[in-house]
Amino acid sequence: MKNALKLTFIGFLIILVGIYLAVSDIDTYGVHKVLTIVGVILAGFGIKSIK
């Protein structure tokens, strides 16, 4: 249960970082897309585990 919550939290953090990179001009290689996808997958696994 704790691990599922951690996964979800980390997933959301990764999504936030992805959004930040998308908004800022730091990102040149489209890294934010990959980060956001990874974050969504992690958060999804976490939420499934909680239920």
Provide structural commentary.
The chain crosses the membrane at residues 7-23, 29-47. The chain is mainly α and 51 residues long. The protein has one domain (2-50). The protein contains two helices and no strands. It has helices at residues 2-23, 31-50. Helix 1 (2-23) runs antiparallel to helix 2. The N and C termini lie close together (9 Å).
Summarize the model shown.
The chain has 51 residues and is mainly alpha-helical. It is 82% helix and 0% strand.
Architecture blueprint of SSEs:
Layout: H1 2-23, H2 31-50
Shape: elongated
Supply the helix-strand structural class.
mainly alpha
Extended strand count = 0
Report, as a whole number of angstroms, the end-to-end distance: 9 Å
How many separate helices?
Answer: 2
Rounded mean pLDDT is 81
Structural domain tally:
1
Radius of gyration: 12 Å
Helical proportion, percent range: over 70%
Helix/strand order: HH
- Strand content range: under 5%
Which short descriptors sum up this protein?
about 50 residues; mainly alpha; 2 helices
